[in-house]
Amino acid sequence: MTNDDQSIGGRPTLKTIAFMTGLGISTVSQALKDGPDISKATRQRVQLIAKQIGYRPNRAGVRLRTGKTNVIALVLNTKEESMGLVSEMVYGISDTLSGTSYHLVVTPYSLSDPMEPIRYIVETGSADGIIISRTQPDDPRVGYLLDHGMPFATHGRTNMGVVHPYHDFDNQAFALEAVKILHGRGRKNIALLGPPPTLLYQRHTRSGFEAGLRAFDMREYWLGDIDTDAELAGIIARGRGLGQDEARPDGIICSAAISALAIGAGLTECGLRIGRDVDLVTKESSQLLSLMRPEIICITENFRAAGRDLARAVMAWIDGADPANFQFLAGP
Amino acid sequence: MTNDDQSIGGRPTLKTIAFMTGLGISTVSQALKDGPDISKATRQRVQLIAKQIGYRPNRAGVRLRTGKTNVIALVLNTKEESMGLVSEMVYGISDTLSGTSYHLVVTPYSLSDPMEPIRYIVETGSADGIIISRTQPDDPRVGYLLDHGMPFATHGRTNMGVVHPYHDFDNQAFALEAVKILHGRGRKNIALLGPPPTLLYQRHTRSGFEAGLRAFDMREYWLGDIDTDAELAGIIARGRGLGQDEARPDGIICSAAISALAIGAGLTECGLRIGRDVDLVTKESSQLLSLMRPEIICITENFRAAGRDLARAVMAWIDGADPANFQFLAGP
DNA sequence: TCGCGGGCCTGAATCGTTACAGTAATTCTA
DNA sequence: TAGAATTACTGTAACGATTCAGGCCCGCGA
To answer: Which of A89, A200, A215, B37 has its CA 20 to 30 A from that of B254?
Structure first.
């Protein structure tokens, strides 16, 4: 009842517009969302004023009343760092989110339990949708989120027989292509430094790799129990080991730029020249590597595009779209 | 009046605890924050139950009532990418924020207007504090935030005669140290590839650089109008140009790892060997460079520590601490 | 002319929290 | 022992938005 000082002061609210138009608050609310019960003239009038005074709905008000947070959470493992993955993903997501009402909350977890941040978000309802990465073949987070009806999208696929949005790089095609390139350069004995077996794309990578070997009649040099998640020092040491091995591979395929650099460093230490004695093909996500080591052959994975896709997917799912329509596989 | 189904169902609220304890809602609210009006016994009882049932205050409720968002906004320029700056900053900030009630919202802006995201946050009150980077000597954002009473911290200092929290790398000391290293390696003719003059740390860098030249009686090779913000291709070309210059510098100091790589790439193209024909000293922020290009001399800047400091500073300021106590200068 | 159904708008209730003004019951003061 | 002060707790009113059950007025059919 006390329409004191609506005209002046603070941020405009529905009350402000109601006061200015002489309408009721609920009318204004409906008019702003083009409710059919409101006459066209009134709707236009309200919307005009709202625009003029720069009205923006109070997020807390909306959230409290409707439960809609207008937040997308990006859940990252601190391990995550394929040279720029984080920044590219963030920028990609923001590309999509800008111009919408969504904000991006970044939630890293250093802990060993990947479920913890997920549970937190679901239990406190602090986001409308979640983007997760480092997806595992049988990822507990996916099951949990599905169970709890929380929209999400994964960077990488799962192997669970359930449908959910994802963006994945076609690592099978990548590995196949890499083998083909090495074959084209006359290489025969190929090593694969792939991702850890806990991540599904390890299987895709291996599958493409093996298909390539078969197709071009090449053989594998078995690298043993080492993957792109290993300590850099360990990878360098492995490179050194290769350098001293008579039966060393003449081609190496690598799933991460940084690991390629590391293994290359080890090889170089032994006096081997990349591009001559050994060929190195790697995935990379920025122009950096080609600068640092132009002799390393690069196949680009675009994390920014991934971020864009993932954000689009989550938003669409939140809006009720069919998640099956948002499964993206990016070619190399 | 209708205490229907408080015991079961959804997330616990104050009402749930009120129902369980038989107390009033406001009593519970006060008890949880150790209000002095509530008896010790009651406070403990309430807090015990709250913990047991995993009560967490509804952020929207708090935010609507108090205006406190429990959000720190990190405002980034998409240009930003000193190899891992974004991820390291994010992880650093999260280190500090984890365990508190704060969430981290990341707001990149690709637009030319750095004020836009700042205004948005202030006008919509969508954060309690802001962390900004790419600080300029006379930064309009700093003035604006000060005017509007929004706590913030800057990555880098300003030159405005106002006090605010910051974390800065001592670029003067870095440049001086770099010159000293080059002097120690017998170099005489030094080039500086510094940051763009719009950023204050360009001055610090130059100042340290010039002091070093004077102290060790060396001379500058003037690189001209190029800085670490330039296109990589341009920097590479400049490196190539240097390689072909008879009077080329025998030492180069670089403010960003990626630029060092670029200029190094240009030099290498001309057959020059880094570490022999030319020495290259650069700032870098990960172990990457020193591992992969050991011939480049690295001085490390720790962005994660910066993130930690900045988050601590903003939180402290929000809590009413004196901003003057949160000015950090990190040595090389 | 009466009643009924739309069209257009409004008030009240609600989401979860906090600030503030009470209100009993108890204890202290003179 | 009356009155004041203290202790311990409670009800109400916001914060800003949305939802929903009306309410009023008009035109139309019988």
So the answer is: A89
Rounded to an integer, what distance in angstroms lies between the CA atom of residue B79 and that of residue B130?
Answer: 19
Tell me the chain A residues in contact with residue B85 when contact means C-beta distances shorter than 8 Å: 87
CA of B38: nearest nucleotide by C1' is: D8
Per the listing, tokens 């003719």 go with B189
Task: For residue B4, give the nucleotide whose C1' atom is nearest its CA.
Answer: C14
pTM of this prediction?
0.93
Q: Is the CB of B64 under 7 A from strand D?
A: yes
Per-residue three-class SS string for A44-86:
HHHHHHHHHCCCCCCHHHHHHHHCCCCEEEEEEECCCCCCCHH
Q: Do A291 and B236 touch (CB under 8 A)?
A: yes
Quick check: B32 CB within 7 A of strand D? no
Q: Across the A/B interface, how many CB contacts are shorter than 8 Å?
A: 114
CA distance A163 to A78: 27
Cβ distance A288 to B258 less than 8 Å, yes or no, reads yes
Write out chain A's pLDDT in tens, 332 residues: 333 444 456 899 999 999 999 999 999 999 999 999 999 999 999 999 999 999 999 999 999 999 999 999 999 998 776 678 999 999 999 999 999 999 999 999 987 789 999 999 999 999 999 999 999 999 999 999 999 999 999 999 999 999 999 999 999 999 999 999 999 999 999 999 999 999 899 999 999 999 999 999 999 999 989 999 998 889 999 999 998 998 999 999 999 988 998 899 899 889 999 999 999 999 998 877 877 788 999 999 999 999 999 999 999 999 999 999 999 999 98
> How far: A26 CA to C11 C1' (Å)?
9
Angstrom CA distances, B208 to B198, B200, B306, stand at 17, 13, 21
